[in-house]
Design a protein that fits this description.
alpha+beta; elongated; two-stranded antiparallel sheet; 10% strand
Length: 195
């Protein structure tokens, strides 16, 4: 007999005891004679109630309260950081769209002027500019008048060659430049109407 059996301590579980799956937790549980595997229970001189057989207890899947609190805090911090970033991202995209639209309109005005100046070199330069933005569409320099990304309307402030650029009032003699009608300002404080 081994020392563990002489001292009355339980012996190790048998070799053919059930093994645990990865999602189960193994514990030692006292087994009855009917639960003891094969030849181990039938050997003479062994007390079947004197050892622990390995049995598996399935763990319940779920989260503890601490894990739920930590996840909630992490989600709250991330959403608190992402919200201001998303607001700035939308504003940045509108500003970028305004710059591109103004550049396209100004290039169209320059193409119109170059076309008319080449057709009639004797014309005064002021007469080579379009009278309105609609004339750019009629002459097929533009397909359509683009919307202002800030006001979401196809209306623009036009500046003629004889206008004071700082004055909001135009004499509408021709279209030399365009500006946004938005009253807002950029992130650095420059008004959109001065772009």
């Amino acid at each position: 007999m081994r020392n563990t059996e002489r001292s009355g301590l339980p012996s190790l579980p048998p070799r053919n005891a059930p093994s645990c799956l990865p999602h189960e937790r193994c514990v030692f549980a006292l087994s009855r004679v009917g639960d003891i595997p094969g030849s181990f229970a039938r050997r003479p001189g062994r007390n079947p109630m004197n050892f622990f057989a390995l049995s598996c207890v399935r763990m319940r899947a779920g989260l503890t309260l601490i894990e739920l609190i930590v996840c909630t805090v992490i989600i709250g911090v991330l959403s608190g950081v992402a919200l201001p970033m998303s607001r700035n991202f939308v504003r940045y995209e509108r500003e970028r769209a305004l710059k591109e639209t103004l550049r396209d309109l100004r290039e169209a005005i320059d193409r119109f002027r170059d076309r008319h100046f080449k057709a009639n070199p004797s014309l005064n330069e002021d007469a080579c500019f379009p009278l309105s933005l609609d004339e750019l569409v009629r002459e097929r320099v533009l397909r359509r008048i683009p919307d202002d990304p800030m006001t979401m309307a196809a209306t623009w402030r036009t500046i003629s060659t004889t206008d004071d650029p700082s004055s909001p009032i135009s004499d509408h003699l021709n279209v030399f430049d365009v500006r946004s009608l938005s009253t807002g300002s950029s992130q650095i404080g420059k008004p959109y109407s001065d772009w």
